[in-house]
Design brief:
The protein has 21 helices and nine strands. The C terminus is likely disordered. The protein folds into three domains: 166 residues, no CATH class; 179 residues, 3-Layer(aba) Sandwich (Rossmann fold), CATH 3.40.50; 93 residues. The strands form three sheets. Strands 4-7-8-3-9 form a five-stranded parallel β-sheet, sandwiched between helices. The two termini are 35 Å apart. Helix 4 runs antiparallel to helix 5 and helix 20 packs antiparallel against helix 21. A hairpin with a 5-residue loop joins strand 5 and strand 6. It has 492 residues and is α/β, with parallel strands linked by helices.
Length: 492
Amino acid sequence: MAKTESFDTFTKKWIEYVKKTDQTIKEEDWNQFFAQTNPVAGIDRGALVDSYTDNKGEKKQANERQTIKNNWSIISQKFSDLYKLNNDEKIKEALKEIKKYIIQTIEKNGGRTLDVATNRILVTLYPEKLLSIPGTDDVKKLANLLGKSVENKDWIDLCFEIKPILDKKYPNMMHWGAYLQLVQENNLTKNYNLILTGAPGTGKTYLARQMATNLIKGEIEELDKNPQFGFVQFHPSYDYTDFVEGLRPNRNGSFERHDGIFKEFCKKAALAEIKDKNSDNKRKFVFVIDEINRGEISKVFGELFFSIDPGYREEKDRIPVRTQYQNIIDDDKSLTVDNYPFKNGFYVPSNVYVIGTMNDIDRSVESMDFAFRRRFSFYEVTAKETQYSILKDCSLMAEAIQKMNSLNKAIENIEGLSPAYHIGAAYFKKINLYEKERDCWNSLWNNHIKGLLYEYLRGLPPKEIEKKLKELKKVYDSPVKKDSNEPSTEQP
């Protein structure tokens, strides 16, 4: 079974094709070069095709792939000349000329005007300075997030300006994954509270931990040891005494008030906020609540609905609230404002950022309180947008992505289901456990996917469930297309 190449391996191979003009390009390499599922971009946009179906349902000839093949000697020579340049301005000028040549040549031969598809070719053959984000609009959004002007700058200009920043800020991360993370980090810092929603296996918890790592300027491997990071996973038995404060038995047989995990975390953050008040380097604290909707939110948070509100975080706006055991704090003479910042009432400091993850389809929990939803920003992490970042090290990435996309399309077409029931790439990454087996995809189905689908279909008559599972298995088992000639989903 053919293994999928990494981005570095893929681009190096094609650069070698450019340098060694006498080398015959294998047909399977051409297929991968044109495929939307090649390692270049984190989204399946920008495919070149030889034919496509237009909006009216009519078959159209495009000859885009054949045009590239027919003109490869000219294209490769242009890139070969470009590789000899060492001045950024001259390199940018050369790239723009190559892009113009490719687009005009495709148009002359009956093809469409494809900005994204052409950008993918440029990234493949010159990855040193270009972002593996082929969409111009996406790169402009990225520039805005990084505080860079986009005026009078095209995709190539912006790539040269942004790539060094992105590579430094998110080392060893695919550019599309870095873009998604930056979008949500910006969302979090503006709103203080963010909930990542999405189908199972879309990498929500991983994304939350990555965001926390960047905000506190730590290392992902040491994150759990970092005092500026907190983590908890909610469940139906979790309550206020675990999260905020409660009474716990002591060795004397009586009870003592103890801070819960979140209040203890906020205490550390509040003391740091006081210490950092006149500092230019103010520390950030990130608290992640995994599967936040599996807990009974009103029961767990209590009066913290008020404290966690973004409008009451800054010192000038905050109104400390009296928690359920505030009277015990009042009577405890050992607690002072200096050693216990919540002596006069609880508040969530302005340096605390809360990230929750949740599954909208979890039937074991009730709907989230509207008062709670109002205090959080929500972002849906879709199965498609994270599949490349999750599967980038998967040896069978191309097959996994095609099976995943086909299965998810079939799932959402089932009455009563929707894209919220998609299966994320984390499930398909488990193929690495079985890749040495002859029937590895069947093992993945039986051990990981079939059971989840059964839960999705629970409630239907047994015979109907069996029928639907067979239909989904048929889609899952469909042969992987080696040369997908589907029309591009990009907007020219």
